[in-house]
């Protein structure tokens, strides 16, 4: 007896649009260094405006997979990493609390993942993460950093944060 899905069911399954999946999910960013910034939303309207501004800069699976294919192809042909073929990627993720603020608690509770619902603060110690005092905050559309001395740079560029593990 086979557990295989009937062909008619397999064809009826929804296909995902590679332009609607963030690039780090399937293809992976495959970078030597990554910067992770945790933000707290104090002003929901400002947070939504900020998200509207950065959304076009979030990289899709399609973009990242195309780049990864090009890089692998050139590495194979040259026998080394190609010079000048580089990319900087961006993606975004939300905590349960953040998603609930942006949508509804019911939407956030609908994500079937206990660790997600438990929350970042509750899991920080078990993951070896830095104290939550070393985080950034989205306030009035500006990124402000606490606990690491990088605040001025972050407020101007949004590109660095304290307590980041490399």
Chain-wise SSE layout:
Elements: H1 7-12, H2 44-54, H3 61-78, H4 96-102, H5 105-109, H6 114-118, H7 120-127, E1 136-139, E2 142-145, H8 151-157
Antiparallel strand pairs: 1-2
Short description:
This protein is mainly α. The chain is built from eight helices and two strands; from the N terminus they run H-H-H-H-H-H-H-E-E-H.
Verbal overview:
This protein has one domain. It is mainly alpha-helical. It has helices at 7-12, 44-54, 61-78, 96-102, 105-109, 114-118, 120-127, 151-157; strands at residues 136-139, 142-145. The radius of gyration is 20 Å and the shape is elongated. The longest helix has 18 residues, at 61-78. It is built from eight helices and two strands; from the N terminus they run αααααααββα. Residues 146-166 have low confidence and may be disordered. The chain has a two-stranded antiparallel sheet with strand order 1-2.
